[in-house]
Amino acid sequence: MIPIDVTRKVLDAGLQQGGDLSELYLEERETFRLELDDGKIEKAIRGSDRGGGVRAFVGDTATYAYTDELDEESLMQAAHAASEAARSSSKPRVSLDLTRRKSSIDLKIEKPFSGMDEASKANLLRKMDQVARSQSPDVSQVNADLVEVHRAVWIFNSEGVWAEDDRNFLEITIGVTAKRNGALQRISSGIGGQMGLELLDSTDPLKLAESVAQSAVTMLDARPAPAGEIPVVITNGWGGVLFHEACGHALEADFVVGGTSAYSGLVGQAVASPLITAIDDGTIPKRRGSLRFDDEGTPSSKTVLIEDGILKEYIWDLKEARRENHESTGNGRRETFRHMPMPRMTNTYIDAGPHNPEEIVQSVKYGLFVKRIGGGQADFARGDFVFSVTEGYLIENGKITTPVRGATLMGNGPQVLKQIDMVATDFALDEGRGRCGKGQWARVSVGQPTVRVPKLMVGGTDREISGQIGA
Fold it and tell me: Strands 408-412 and 384-396, how do they pair?
């Protein structure tokens, strides 16, 4: 993107005030977005963004300055600003020779975005609208969008790192509202991944529209959700968002090192049911959270966080790793060049267990089956959570029966992880729609098999059901 001799000058400038490591991050981003509302394309937006930033380290302290101009003068100004802010009494260092790193991770695009024209993409969204409406006259509103992102990044640092990554994302989402006799139910879902138009070969957006519309209509017949502590069975795939939010963030090193995490200082100790193995893996082909290199130039990796209930490792970026004399796990991520990296999850999931998913449902006398989890809140460090259930069903005498509305799941993630007593063989990752917010947005994947929590607090609008717990 810029001449290598300019790169060396910028890195050297980042060390001039006594810093012991300087880093240059460059980025180019192109986006295309189509938005459909009730059969009409309301927005068609194409945009681009580019810029870079320089980070200077003194020990475990880092300062950062960025610019959206990639000429030598602007980058040198950013380097001097970062270096000045990181001033120390040490003598200036010089950067080492840059050697470009190569990655063995295959994230190639098989069918580029350009293989389908914009009119055809718009027509696909219209067909999704038609399919959704054809499911029932109760479907009252349909929204859909298609997003393409091409993001190229270059990372250099004064220790000789030179890494490049090219990331391409295709995402298609749909939301359907059903209405009957004043009752409204809305269900949304999406598909996507780090891939091109081959997404349309592996997953049918029309089938997605059909499924979402059917779920929205089904929920119109839902009775008020029960309330109280009952067994809860959480579906595979997207159900992993609960682990991501209520446990995964507490395993990120900034919370751990800061002493605010429920998992601080517990490596080697039992923190979950022996049935639980949890993994963060940024190397999985085509997944939203996958990276050849993270945004600090560290190769992406597969990290076993919890194995058979024992805490094995945390999620590290370069800054927190330097602070603890540890190695980065390749999880330093940033939203754009305007942001400093921080430790973030990539594709995080609970691995498969020994139980048959039908066996898990059959084991519950009276409880809740969670098919779709919606929005919620979680204390990232401690893991307390409240999540809405957008599609849920009663389990009665071992069978999934009546749909229920208005259910919420409440609890503490680390405690729930210890309580899980059945884990199924049906492991799945989500369909490709996860975005994680932690002051910065990042694309991620989540996953899990079907799991059973024998007692979980469910907030609802029906009668209290304490005393009806049973399995």
Answer: antiparallel
Query: Given strand 278-281, what is the order of strands in its sheet?
Result: 310-311, 302-307, 278-281, 347-350, 445-448, 428-429
What tokens were used for 59? Answer: 């020990």
The alpha carbon dihedral of 303, 306, 312, 313 has a sign of positive
Instruction: Give the range among 82-91, 100-109, 335-344, 425-434 with minimum mean pLDDT.
Output: 82-91
Q: Both 139 and 235 in a single domain?
A: no
The reply to whether 426 and 451 lie within a common domain is: yes
* 119 class by beta-carbon count within 10 Å (0-12 exposed, 13-18 middle, 19+ buried): exposed
Alpha carbon of residue 332 to chain centroid: 14
For the stretch 370-395, pLDDT in tens is 999 987 888 877 889 999 999 999 99
Residue 13 maps to a domain:
yes
Give the structural domain span for 425. Answer: 228-459
| 466 lies in some domain | no
User: Based on the domain organization, do 269 and 358 belong to the same domain?
Assistant: yes
Amino acid identity of residue 26, one-letter, is: L
pTM for the full predicted model: 0.93
pLDDT in tens, 56-71: 998 888 999 999 999 9
Distance of CA 420 to the CA centre of its chain: 22
